[in-house]
Design brief:
Layout lengths: L1 E5 L3 H13 L3 E5 L2 H10 L4 E4 L2 E2 L2 E2 H10 L6 E5 L4 H9 L4 E4 L4 H13 L9 E3 L2 E4 L4 E4 L2 E3 L3 H12 L5 E2 H8 L10 H15 L4 E6 L3 E6 L11
Parallel strand pairs: 1-2, 1-3, 3-6, 6-7
Antiparallel strand pairs: 4-5, 8-9, 9-10, 10-11, 12-14, 13-14
Helix pairs in contact: 6-8
Length: about 230
């Protein structure tokens, strides 16, 4: 799951970023309407977290523009504007939920989970490959009865490969998946993440392997019952 936070407070953005990443989701954070518009144009997000009082305008204007473009991405408003009239204005502008600052991070994460469950991406069935099962709504990866704890970057990689089980996933798409909006991966970061994920999956008897298609990308495929596989290595 990839979230966009539009928040001009660096301290709050850092706190929310830590909570979001610990929950297993990826977060891109911007501080202005202009940056938010650029991010939304470049990336498909599963949830937008929107402050209203921004340096270059009102977040409600961005929200209305999102809805005029027929963009149904869930939007959670995070703001200090707490009167009944202000909450009504936010919901009428197209917000799916409204949370007034200050708020408890556990309530914030619970509201995010509720909205992500309604996201088009999470309405899909749980992803299954070999003994692995991944639930996009909870970011929970299991192998049989065992829960698999992966760092955020490896979890995002595993999800991307599971979504295209048995098919080549180009390097560039994986690099985009693993990168943050405002930074690029180092030259070997993808290969390093793949190597680490391979070792973890082999160690738990996941029933899948990650094959390299040299110069093109990677694919995840199920292992044969005798452990043999065919095709790219």
């Amino acid at each position: 799951m990839r979230l966009l936070l539009v928040e001009d407070s660096a301290r709050l953005a850092a706190l929310l970023g830590e909570a979001v990443r610990e929950a297993g989701w990826r977060l891109d954070a911007v501080g202005t309407l202009a940056e938010a518009e650029a991010a939304i144009a470049a990336t498909d997000f599963d949830l937008i977290l929107l402050d209203l009082g921004l340096p270059d305008g009102d977040g409600l204007d961005l929200l209305r523009a999102i809805r005029r473009a027929a963009d149904a991405t869930p939007v959670l408003i995070l703001t200090a504007r707490g009167t009944v009239e202000e909450r009504i204005a936010g919901l009428d502008a197209g917000a799916d939920d409204y949370l007034v600052k200050p708020f408890h991070h556990r309530e914030f994460l619970a509201r995010c989970r509720a909205m992500l469950r309604r996201s088009p991406m999470t309405l899909q069935p749980v992803l299954v490959a070999g003994r692995l099962a991944y639930d996009p709504a909870t970011a929970l990866l299991t192998a049989g009865e065992e829960t698999i704890a992966l760092p955020p970057r490896e979890r995002a990689l595993c999800e991307a490969l599971m979504r295209d089980i048995g098919r080549l996933v180009p390097r560039r798409r994986l690099e985009t998946t693993l990168s943050d909006y405002d930074s690029e991966l180092t030259a070997n970061a993808l290969d390093l993440a793949v190597s680490r994920l391979r070792r973890r999956l082999e160690g738990i008897g996941s029933g899948v392997e990650i094959a390299t298609v040299r110069g093109l990308g990677y694919l995840m495929r199920e292992c044969a019952s005798d452990g043999a596989t065919e095709g790219p290595t």
